[in-house]
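Lab manual, section 2.4: Encoding a predicted structure.

Procedure: take the sequence of the chain (324 residues), apply the prediction step described in section 2.3, and record the output as structure tokens. A sample record is shown.
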Amino acid sequence: MQEHDEPRYAVGIDFGGTFIKMALVDDAGTIVARRRIPTATLPNRAAWMDAMAEGIHVLAREGRSARPAALSGVGIGVPGFVDFARGHIFELPNVPGWSGVPLASLMEERIGLPVRVDNDVNAMATGECTFGAGRTYQHAVFVTLGTGVGGALLIHNRIYRGAHHMAGELGHMTIDMNGVPAPNGRGGLEQYVGNRRIVERALRYLDEGRTSLLDALCEGDRSRIDPLLIEKAAEQGDPLSITVYDEVADCLAAALASVTYLLQPQAIIIGGGVGQSGPILYEPLHRHLRERLNINFADRLEIKKAALGNDAGVIGGAAMVLLE
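Recorded output:
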């Protein structure tokens, strides 16, 4: 990042289907002010962009130490396929109504500032490489585990986007050639380790009649079972929940082993809600990776938890601008 006498600021936006998370971030990676907008209140695409524009102005006012002249621009991470060079959204598979949208230019017209748009995991990776767990690596793979599975690739200290800016979609990598069909292929990783799939594994075992601490923890209401509850049960020694996380780790290892053989990264950095799990995920993940990798690859690979947590998206969005 370039040296400047005065602090510089940017607004980072993590654009999701349920909430738009926004933050004013300084050039040390510190969040000065933040805002969250529920998308259920926004009836159409124009309303979403108007809400973001208003939020940017609110953040600039709230960040009293940030003079308006020091606001360098806005970086937006979106969950889908993006042409980074043009700031153009090709498609957001889980957010309807956003196909073929020149988001950067439309937002620049609204706010009069430079706007950069990238895939949300590329934004997360930029944040982790600048201020978090990826700072010491030249070659790394970033994975987010949540509702879906996202990925980003760092090669020679640069985000690798591919010929048409859409590379790194680890969630759609096939781990079973005859596996679960989905809009983006068959047998993709996301169909086995996304939040909903983790819960489905547990419910399937419960429906088969297996006993589990989960029934007590959810107080008999199985609709309350989520990955966090399964993790809690596993940490208390529940065999069913331990099995679920072991299977999730093995599916994840199948994909990450292939990526490791292809790219040989120094590290794989894992974020997202499930990525914040503890040993119940990471111990079997290490074990299954070693089962699938030659020792010369396994011994040279680090597995790390993302450092920026739920702020990785907004900090990374701001970093896209601050690095220019």
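Check your result against the sample. Residues 23 and 34 are 4 Å apart (CA to CA).
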